[in-house]
Amino acid sequence: MKKITLSLLLLGGMFVTSTQAQVKPALTWKDVSKWNYNRGNALSGDGQWSAWATGPTEGDLKMVIKKTFDTLSYSYPIGATPTFTLFSKNSKYAAFKVSAKDAEAKAARKTMKPLYDKLLLVSLADNKQTTFEKVRTFGFSGDAADWIAIQFAPLETAPKDKDAAKGTDVLLYHLASKKSFNLGNVGEYAFNKAGDKLAYTVDANGQNGNGLFLRDMKTGTITALDNDKAVYKSITWNEDGTAFALLKANKNDKYKDEVLSVIGINKINGDLTAKVIYNGIDDSNFTKEMGINANATPYWSDDQSTLFFGINTLIKKEDKKADSAKAKGKPEVKVDSAAKAKAAPAPEVKKDDIEKPDMIIWNWQDRRLQSAQQTQEMRDKNFSYVSSYRIADKKFTQLADSNMRSVSVAPKQLYAIGYDNTKYELMGNLDGQSYSDIYLIDLKTGTKKVLFEKMYGNNGGRLLVAPDGKMASYYVDGVFYSVNFETGQKANLTGNIKASFVDQLDDHNVTKPATTNYGWSSDSKYALIMDNYDLWKISADGKSVTALSDNWKNKKTAVAGRYRIYANEKGTDLSKDQYFTVFNNETKDMGIGILPAGKSKINVLFTDANSYGVLTKAENAKVFAFTKSNYAQSPVYYASASSDLAAPKQVNTNTPDQAKYAWTSGVKLIKYVSAHGDTLQAALYLPANYQAGKSYPTITYIYERLTDGLNNYSMPGFPGGGFNAGMYLSNGYAVLMPDIKYKLNDPGMSAVACVVPAVKAAIATGVVDEKNVAIHGHSWGGYQTSFLITQTNIFKAAAAGAPLTNMISMYSLIYWNSGGTNQAIFEASQGRLTPGYWDNWDAFARNSPIYHIKNVKTPLLLLHNDKDGAVDFTQGIEYYNGLRRLNKPVVMITYKGENHGIAKLPNRKDYAVRMMEYFDYMLKGKPAPEWWSKGVNRLDMEKHLEARAFDEAGN
Questions:
Q1: What's the pLDDT at 633?
Q2: Does the pLDDT value for residue 751 go beyond 90?
Q3: Whole-angstrom Cα distance, residue 728 to residue 688?
Q4: Is the pLDDT of residue 341 over 50?
Q5: Which DSSP letter does residue 209 get?
Q6: ∠ CA 199-204-210 to the nearest 5 degrees?
Q7: Which has the minimum average pLDDT: 55-64, 153-162, 698-707, 910-919?
Q8: Where does the Peptidase S9 prolyl oligopeptidase catalytic domain start and stop, copy by copy (predicted)?
Q9: Which residues is 183 bridged to in the sheet?
Q10: Eight-class DSSP state of 447
Q11: CA angle at 644 for the pair 642 and 648, rounded to the nearest 5°
């Protein structure tokens, strides 16, 4: 027997058995509905205030605003809908919405009564509160923070048709004086960065007085910048707050939809403010049959010389008065009188009366399937072709087109990068291997040239452009390079470094998948690129290379991510302290490292058996905040006033009810060897009240690689797949989560090769009761679950959610959520089977649960919803009917109208309860639920569901 290495991670470094502590009750699903926990964290600009929402899974919540480094704390009821707190830039005020209470919301849903949010404005110095009713949106006035703008919801009596005016009142409330000013019929509003200017539009009934206005917030002066019978929208200030752009929509008798113009405002000076209006229709250089797109946000170039916007098709109205033949340009056909006499009189047929076939034509040459075109129809109709208009010479340039649809304008707006996959799209949709021709577009001249032909896209094949907009990094065949847009010169960045830049853990059918590219330093001098462990700082010409992490590979430690803590940072500013996630791939310890300003070595500040959430920094102060959690401790907010995160202070607590219930006692990290000879790991979570030497019923939960989440907290809840680890651990189950490593053309067999040895290794620890082990997975995990039970009888029970069951039929079915086929997913993504089954029949059949169905001896709970847009419903039906024909114990649950995961709360609750009832029966010997042992007659289903809903309500 192979040696098994174990490490036990225990909260506080101490193990407490059930004989030494009071035995607490296990969580019930009713407890989950009442489970209190925190949502979100916000930090004020000076770092002195923190805010979060808290409350039960179902019910009314409250907002907590607390002094970050003190005990002073305020609490406010906010209704049943989680919301966020917005702090003013000067940190003197906080504002957040208050929704209807849970009971009110439920009653309103029955009566269709409209509900409205309130806004609560809080003065943080004295906790004085001001409430505003029926609020739609709100926002503080930029850096100045002297004002708050509050837009109110429309009146219940307001017209609701498509063309009805959308404007409502906006209240400008002066925070210091408490004086307020009303702006009527406001469609949109936006403060500039400084907060001294407010741009807004008016959208009134009958479009009377519609226009664009600018209010000087210091003087109160309002300037009308444009007035028209039009609708104005999409106000976008530039970053400095010195100019803005927006769209203007006018009705036009010649076109079906409104004709849009882009408006550019700059050189702001009251009535002398500069204004540019461009709609393209009267421009001979503008693309024919196109118009400015309402769904693309316009913006200025940094130097305010150019406006960027999108265009799409503009459809003309048909001329109903013209003769249809003439309208189509057909010649008039004359018939002589003799012919008229012989011809039978034909009744006049109106165009609308003609019966047209209702059909779809699928052609093998279509680059996208008809189903994909249907699913993506609205996206295609609204697709925006990036374009520009240069003010000085009034030059329009369409940058994107029907072939080169993807165009990214680079920083500083000197160049744009275009991606054209036209020649490769059809094959890419078939085999999943993505290629593009990449173009460099000079935005001064509009000329474009080919940078790369047939660039492979599956392995990180897009360019990362430097902040100066003059160069980019890219990846080809295991090596990162740079290219200078001005000279065309290319440099090898990583080819001479003695490390691999091919992701060693990516086992998809992708040619040399790339490691992480963190982009460029803010001065554009250095590229920051990862190998599998270390982060490298590489000069743009590739001649200077510095390892920012010092050979961490030897410690199995990696730079696992960069925290973006500075507002509006362009690239990585190496003149400031930079922070990184640190992760040990062997122990799963996690921590934070700092690259001090101007230095070339990341210092690890701490690593331990915890999980650390996103690190944030107060915008105007040296205050840092992050969350910390582990398998037994829910995420808690910490803050430090030191750049090295020294002496962090715990700001809040979480999950206050957890102490009342039994909870997991620890987690073992197991090393084991797969049947393929690979050394892998599995996380074995101990049940509540664990006693050494006693074995427990165990749920094996699978997907792909899961042990990196060893220290993650499992928040009690009702997930879309039914399984919640925290709930099962509290109820006396152990939970095993193994890693799976795949061999191409053997995804199912790879799962067997990894999962079965992991289960045996877990049994060898003594924790797992080998006679009571179950397996569960959803989607890809559901596939592997349904396959594993055809290959092994090690499991006493199984639950598979939305599983693939026949790889041959699944290969050519539609992925309805996108409209494409599964072929690309099989050949270049998760399916890991290539090429098609006609050339690879043995592999497809060998890895299909349906072809081994006769071997199944394990009872199966199967979930498959009838509107599953990822794994076709027929996959579940095929497996269910096959097992049923063989008289195998199987129950399939289908939630009507649900997609791949369960979305509706009543359905999520129902499935979570049923899954545990099933496992309790199979693994704990509890009575079998009737829906399993006897089934439910269709005529009795309504009574059955009503009874369960009544029971779950606690009555």
A1: 97
A2: yes
A3: 9
A4: no
A5: T
A6: 50
A7: 153-162
A8: 756-924
A9: 170
A10: -
A11: 60
Is residue 246 within 8 A of residue 225, CB to CB? The reply is no
Query: How far apart (Å, rounded) are the C-alpha atoms in residues 701 and 697?
Result: 13
Residue 477 φ then ψ, to 5°: 55, 45
Neighbours of 928 (CB within 10 A): 14
For residues 928-946, give the mean pLDDT. 85
Residue-wise pLDDT tens digits, 652-702: 999 999 999 999 999 999 999 999 999 999 999 999 999 999 999 999 999
pLDDT tens profile 280-302: 988 999 999 999 999 999 999 99
pLDDT value at 323 more than 70: no
Question: pLDDT, tens digit, for every residue of 473-487?
Answer: 999 999 999 999 999
Looking at residue 184, its pLDDT comes to: 96
- In 636-721, which ranges are E strands? 636-640, 649-650, 664-673, 679-688, 696-701
pLDDT value of position 8: 37
Please list, residue by residue across 535-553, b when 16 or more beta carbons sit within 10 angstroms of its beta carbon and e when fewer do: bbbbbbebeeeebbbeebe
DSSP state letters, 290-303? EEE-TTS--EE-TT
Query: Residue ranges of the domains in the chain?
Result: 230-319+366-398, 662-952
CATH classification for the domain delimited by 662-952, as one of 3.40.50.1380, 3.65.10.10, 3.40.50.1820, 2.60.120.340: 3.40.50.1820
List of E strands, 367-414: 385-390, 395-398, 406-409
Task: Identify whether the C-beta of residue 268 lies closer than 8 Å to the C-beta of residue 197.
Answer: yes
What does the alpha-carbon distance between residue 944 and residue 545 come to, in Å, rounded to a whole number? 68
Residues 6+ apart with CB under 8 A from 742: 507, 704, 750, 832
Answer whether 370's CB lies under 8 Å from 361's CB.
Answer: yes
How is residue 635 written in tokens?
């995420």
Asked if 94 contacts 68 with a C-beta cutoff of 8 angstroms, the reply is no
In terms of DSSP bridges, do strands 197-202 and 299-300 run parallel, antiparallel, or are they unpaired? unpaired
Distance spanning both ends of the chain, measured CA to CA: 53
β-bridge pairing 517-520 and 197-202: unpaired
Both structure tokens of 701: 């939960």
Helix/strand/coil for 56: strand
Token output for 145: 């923070």
The pTM of the full predicted model, rounded to 2 decimals, is 0.91
pLDDT at 198: 98
CA proximity to 800, closest of 849, 762, 843: 849
